[in-house]
Amino acid sequence: MLTLYIVIYYFGPINLCLKDSPLTREISFILTTCSLRRERRSGLAPLREKVRGVGVLYIVLIHNFGRRVKMAKGLTSYMRDRFYPDYVFCGSKVLGGHSGHSDFYKRGRDVDLEIRRWVETGASVSHPYSKKFVMWVEYKKLVAVHAQLAVGDAKIRTFIDVILKDRRGRHIVVEVKTGFHGYHDASSGLMRKEFSFLSNSPRNQHLLQAAFSEQLYRRTCVNAPVSGSLVLRINDGGVHVLYPPAKMKCEVVKILNAA
Fold first, then answer.
1. d(CA 75, CA 29)
2. CB count in 10 Å sphere of residue 126
3. DSSP letter string over 179-224?
4. Using CA atoms, how far apart are residues 161 and 153, in angstroms rounded to an integer?
5. Are 221 and 47 in contact (CB under 8 A)?
6. Tell me: the pLDDT tens digits for 103-116?
7. CATH topology classification for 73-258
8. Where are the domains of the chain?
9. How large is the angle between the packed helices 202-220 and 75-83, nearest 10 degrees?
10. What are phi and psi of 94, to 5 degrees?
11. For residue 92, what pLDDT is reported?
12. Cα(62)–Cα(3) distance, rounded to whole angstroms?
C-alpha cells in the first residue's frame, strides 16, 4: 500500500491567531521539536526567543506495507497508562467549574491560551486565574521565556506550560493547574510500578507531570541552565506553589535513562 505523507517544516513564528486545537498543537510540537533538534545538531544554542527562517515543504512518498510508524506518546497518556490505577476522580464528576465556567477543562484551556499569548506577545489577560498567574510572576520578579514549549524524546513528548527565568538566569519548568476544588488531595489508591509509594491523587499526578517535564526539558534543551520544576495551582483562593519531592525526581531520571 502506498501512503503519502505531507510534512510542513516551517521555521517561523507560529500564527497565534490560529484556533487552539489538537491539530494546531500537533503542528506546533513538530515545528518546535524539528527546530530545536536542528540547532542542536548544528552546534547552535538550542534556545531562542523566536524561530525565524523560511518555510520548506517536504512531500515524502513512503511505501507502507502494513507497517505502522511508532510515534512518541504524550506524557499524560504515558503516565495514565503506566502509573495510574484510575484517572477520573469522584469529586471531579460532581464539582462544576468556577469563575464563570461550567466546563473546568475548558477553563484550563482558556487560561493556558491567555498565558501563552501574554508570554509570546505581551497581550493583556482577562481570566481571573490568568491575572493571578501574571501577578505572581511579576511579584517574584521572574521573566517568562516560553509558553506551551514542545519537548520530548523518541518515546515521550509533552508541552510545558511555561518556562520562567529567575534573576540568576536559571530556568524554571512550570506546570499550571486550575481549580480542583474539593478533590485536589483525593486518592483512588496508590500509584503503580515505580511510584507505588505515592497516593494516586490529582496533586501527585501534577507533581509527577512537572518532574517528567523538567527532565524532558533538560534532554531537549541541553544547554539550558535549569534550576528545577514546580506546579502552580491557581484557584479562587490564590496561587499555591508545589514542588516535586526528591525521591519522585530520582525515579523519573531512572525511568528516562532506562528508556
1. 13
2. 9
3. --TTTTT--SSB--GGGTTSB--HHHHHHHHHHHHHHHHHHHSTT-
4. 18
5. yes
6. 556 777 889 999 99
7. Lambda Exonuclease; Chain A (3.90.320)
8. 2-63, 73-258
9. 130
10. -110, -20
11. 45
12. 6
